[in-house]
Amino acid sequence: MAKSKTFSCSECGASFSKWSGRCEGCGAWNTISEDAPLASGPASKSLGARRGSAVPLTDLAVEETPPPRTVSGLGELDRVLGGGLVPASAILVGGDPGIGKSTLLLQAAAKFARSGLKTVYVSGEEASAQVRMRAQRLDLADAPVRLAAETNLRDILTTLEAERPQLAIIDSIQTMWADNVDSAPGSVSQVRAAAHELTNFAKRRGISVIMVGHVTKEGQIAGPRVVEHMVDTVLYFEGERGHQFRILRAVKNRFGPADEIGVFEMTGGGLSEVLNPSALFLSERGAPSAGSVVFAGIEGTRPVLVELQALVAPTPHSQPRRTVVGWDGGRLAMILAVLEARCGIPFAGLDVYLNVAGGMKISEPAADLAVAAALLSAREDVALPADTVVFGEISLSGALRPAPQTENRLKEAQKLGFTAAIAPAGGKAGSGSAVGGGLTLTRPADLTGFVGETFGAG
Ligand code: TYD
Ligand code: MG
């Protein structure tokens, strides 16, 4: 034990028990070196001679005031940030190229600057003239935002040091170049070094830093995951190319709830806020059709109704297709298996397609019952009544579990004119209980009960 050494790769951070010239984790050459132990003790005789100094410990009970926040007035952004921008916070905004990150952040910069925050916008991707032209098009040219087109991180930090803004926006982290790191801009080590420098700078100087990060084909912010660990808040800007909707989603937030979403619409004049996302997501719904079901979901702290669409058709292939857009493929396979095993409804020999309308992505297990309803509706070619929402979790036994925030979901459905809901709820199962305001709630006992009541089979 006394002689055990560890080695790690400076590119990807993978650790090994022995040295080698090439990292098995990321394939980089000459990046592996021995880890120096920090603690003094018998295992680290040679390096442990210098002792650290003792760190003062405090109690949990010390009163802390919540951080002050600056609201931009762009309500959808403020909500996703957890109620406004926290000073000295580091924020990463990720998203596919062309999705609208620069547009969003220029609008945010203008809003913050107009509400009194000293704001600097650094573009490493576009020339100042291009950014100014966009600002003109968005009618933001008079906002007191200071602008620079630069990629040299050392120069940027020196400039920020001198200017002392309260908010710095860096577009994008992949274009930044730290001259103390010996690799090309956009490489993993450059991205990591730049993010590390900027995050430290934010903390040290009390400046909020928002960094833009492009997402790779695999759906991760290019560069190692450690960038996400470094910053306080990670937001993803999502949407489908063909759709106007854009969803800003908090996937990590040290200063607010994760999974909160903000909904925007891309227009000729930039991004506009969508104050009633449910209405927008349901706006393209036509006449009631088989396979279409409205799911009453919760995104972060707010209810959102979305349409699920399923198509079930005999397969020409030996292996039937299972295609999902906007939901989890593994979860779909599970629902199909439960329907077959517990309700005797086979999907063998049938292609199954499931789509969440409007480019929305759902990760809630509460969508299970709505998915099952869409699949059955498509399979039986029976349309559900158009004024019905469905939600609830399905367990492997075929039992149904109530979804969290049932009340909020029902309220939202009611607000949008729905008159019926099918959902497992706490308490005794039963049908036809009217919830306040005229919404009729049907509470199936289990999946078999649901199939029988809704599709008249079992
Ligand atoms: P952009 O913000 O440059 O995307 P990103 O920084 O994520 O790469 O936005 C690119 C797209 O947005 C571009 O294809 C044009 C469109 N767009 C509009 O539709 N309206 C607008 O007002 C602006 C500024 C852009
Ligand atoms: Mg951009």
Write up this protein.
The protein is an alpha/beta fold. It has three domains: 1-35; 75-275, P-loop containing nucleotide triphosphate hydrolases (Rossmann fold, 3-Layer(aba) Sandwich); 280-455, Ribosomal Protein S5, domain 2. Helices cover 26% and strands 25% of the residues. The strands form four sheets. Strands 6-5-7-8-4-9-10-11-12 form a nine-stranded mixed sheet. The protein has an eight-stranded mixed sheet with strand order 15-16-14-13-17-20-22-21. Strands 2-1-3 form a three-stranded antiparallel sheet, with no helix packed on it. The protein is globular. The termini are far apart. The model has no long low-confidence stretch (mean pLDDT 88). Thymidine-5'-diphosphate is lined by residues 95, 97-103, 134, 137-138, 266, 268-270.
Brief sketch in words of this structure:
With 458 residues, this protein is an alpha/beta fold. Helix content is 26%, strand content 25%.
CATH top level class name of the largest domain: Alpha Beta
At CATH level 2, the architecture of the largest domain is 3-Layer(aba) Sandwich
What best-fitting shape do the alpha-carbon axes yield? globular
What gap, in angstroms, lies between the N and C termini? 63 Å
Count of separate DSSP helical elements: 11
**Model regions low in confidence, pLDDT < 50 over at least 5 residues:** none
Bound molecules: thymidine-5'-diphosphate, magnesium ion
How many discrete structural domains? 3
Computed structural class: alpha/beta
Spatial strand arrangement across the major sheet: 6-5-7-8-4-9-10-11-12
Q: Helix share of residues?
A: 25-40%
Mean pLDDT: 88
Annotation, overall tally of beta strands: 22
**CATH topology of the largest domain, anyone?**
Rossmann fold
